[in-house]
Amino acid sequence: MDLSAADESKHVAIANHLRHAIESREFPVGSEIPSESTLVKQFDVSRGTIRQALATLRHEGLIHTSRGRRPVVHAQPLAQSIDDFFSFSSWVVAQGHIPGQRTIEISRRRRESPEPELPLGYPEGDFLVHLTRLRLIDDRPTMIERSTFHDSVGQALMNFDTDSGSIYEYLIERGAELDEGTHLVDAVPANALDSELLQVEPGSPILRVRRNTTSAAGHVLEYSEDRYRSDLANIRIRNSRADSAALVSASRSTAVNAR
Amino acid sequence: MDLSAADESKHVAIANHLRHAIESREFPVGSEIPSESTLVKQFDVSRGTIRQALATLRHEGLIHTSRGRRPVVHAQPLAQSIDDFFSFSSWVVAQGHIPGQRTIEISRRRRESPEPELPLGYPEGDFLVHLTRLRLIDDRPTMIERSTFHDSVGQALMNFDTDSGSIYEYLIERGAELDEGTHLVDAVPANALDSELLQVEPGSPILRVRRNTTSAAGHVLEYSEDRYRSDLANIRIRNSRADSAALVSASRSTAVNAR
DNA sequence: CAGTGGTCTAGACCACCTG
DNA sequence: AGGTGGTCTAGACCACTGT
Predict the structure, then answer these.
(1) Which pLDDT score, from 0 to 100, does residue B207 have?
(2) Which of A57, B142, B179, B225 has the smallest CB count inside 10 Å?
């Protein structure tokens, strides 16, 4: 393997190589991957570098390691990228479907004083950009997305065709620091708008995800409320005792095929 | 600080020490913790050991690190232990409330051939233990838990007072390898049983979590369907671009106080 | 510029697992 | 007993951050 590509570090390149080998079933589920000492020789790096690569895969939930045993490939489904969690479009594409969107409303206005829907931390008096879109999977209405962006990122949206695709990818490309998200998941009855746009009975169960996206420094950049037709989408969480924190794998899955 | 306690490694002891300092607000949110070189002197260990401790905190989502900057304490709420995610009792206690349970039914029977509710992977013909409990928070009915255990762990339950507390903790103590869980979250209308036990209107939204618990080797040991009153409980997910995989933090939160 | 964390190396000892 | 991963050390160079 060639590690001469200088744009990524050795341990990242090795982790990518091993991840690909696992995902392509070159190392089948339950099998052992080569020992650290073998990998040291194979990639001609120090053991520390190999251990760093293996730590990455371990934290992704791809392998399990323990004393005296070679690393074992996990039985669980593969973790998908974080982009799939933030971005509806990227998620739908990863599931093999076609994403779509219809903009319902976009506006930019100064924040009003009592705005109970918004989480604390938004500086008062700033401009905010509000956006409501209906999101589609294979042309089927699946989710209503009501987002509020802080002006520092939202202003860019006024020059963006919100019917054209992924806002998340667009903002990331323009350097927005959408680094962290906190998601609150619950179930609520469909309101009149849900009923009309998602084509469900009023009062029927809606899977609601309220998201707070912040920069690494902790500034709240986006607040979003996503309302899913629960029969068409759900959320998947995977966790493991091997990790001190739990892992989110596919994060969302679609039931479109199952219908 | 005394690192002489030989029952845990240095990097774990240091991580615990720093975690405690963060949780006790000794290092407030947004502040910088001491640099690696400072910690090296303070704990009299090598830099590698410090980095291992910091990696743990980073993966727990407690701190953020980047080149040229000292580690920063995250603005996000603290990650809770994985036990809080698996165990209703442990979660409720962590939230400062009192958990309770009322056993509705427990049975042990051979698996019937067509059991569409159960996920694939259950060996056919094996005995399974079924258990239905109503779970309470501060004596308020909050969730219905319908679990199916594989006989290898479920048999122990026949000698357990299922009204007494946490099955999860009981099974872990007896050596059960409940290592990994996959959770599927969606919203469904309340059925007759939900309506009666949870004291909600039939058809009102229920937050449903279907869980598959396996050993590290991938054997399915438990299948559970938890149905929450959505106004009393929800699920919290936190993820970060800094991690290739997303982190689940508090995993569940309760709205009992907010009422 | 000095200080910081990210990466990498080359050794070492130990605990654990399987023959 | 030999191989394995877990831990730890002592150095080194680099990229990035602030002043």
Answers:
(1) 94
(2) B225
Whether B218 maps to a domain, the answer reads yes
DSSP alpha helix (H) spans, chain B: 10-23, 36-43, 47-59, 82-86, 88-94, 151-154, 167-173, 192-198
Counting as low any pLDDT under 50, the low residues of chain A are 78-79, 116, 120, 244-246, 249-250, 256-259
The DSSP bridge pattern shows strands B127-137 and B140-150 to be: antiparallel
What distance in Å separates the CA atoms of residue A86 and residue A119, rounded to the nearest whole number?
19
Q: Which of B73, B99, B122 is the last residue before a domain boundary?
A: B73
| Residue B65: strand, helix, or coil | coil
Minimum distance, in Å, between the CA of residue B241 and any CA atom of chain A: 5
* Cβ <8 Å between B234 and A60: no
Is residue B89 within 8 Å of B97, Cβ to Cβ?
no
Q: Which stretch of B153-157, B159-163, B245-249 has the lowest confidence by average pLDDT?
A: B245-249
Tell me the CATH number at B168.
3.40.1410.10
Distances from the Cα of B165 to the Cα of B94, B134, B136, B149, angstroms:
15, 12, 11, 17
For strand C, which residues in window 62-91 of chain B come within 7 Å by CB? 65-71
Residues of A in contact with B189 (CB under 8 A): 204-205
With a threshold of 0.70, does the pTM exceed it? yes
Type of residue at B209: V
Instruction: Name the nucleotide with the smallest C1'–CA separation from A54.
Output: D5
Q: Over A70-120, what HEC string results?
A: EEEECCCCCCCCHHHHHCHHHHHHHCCCCEEEEEEEEEEEECCCCCCCCCC
Q: Looking at chain B, how many residues does it have?
A: 259
A86 with A65, same domain?
no
Percentage, residues of chain B above pLDDT 90: 32
What type of residue is A241? R
Query: Hey, what are B11's tokens?
Result: 């990097």
* Token pair belonging to A175: 């350097």
Residue B246 lies in a domain: yes
Q: Between the ranges A77-81, B4-8, B57-61, B108-112, where is the mean pLDDT highest?
A: B57-61
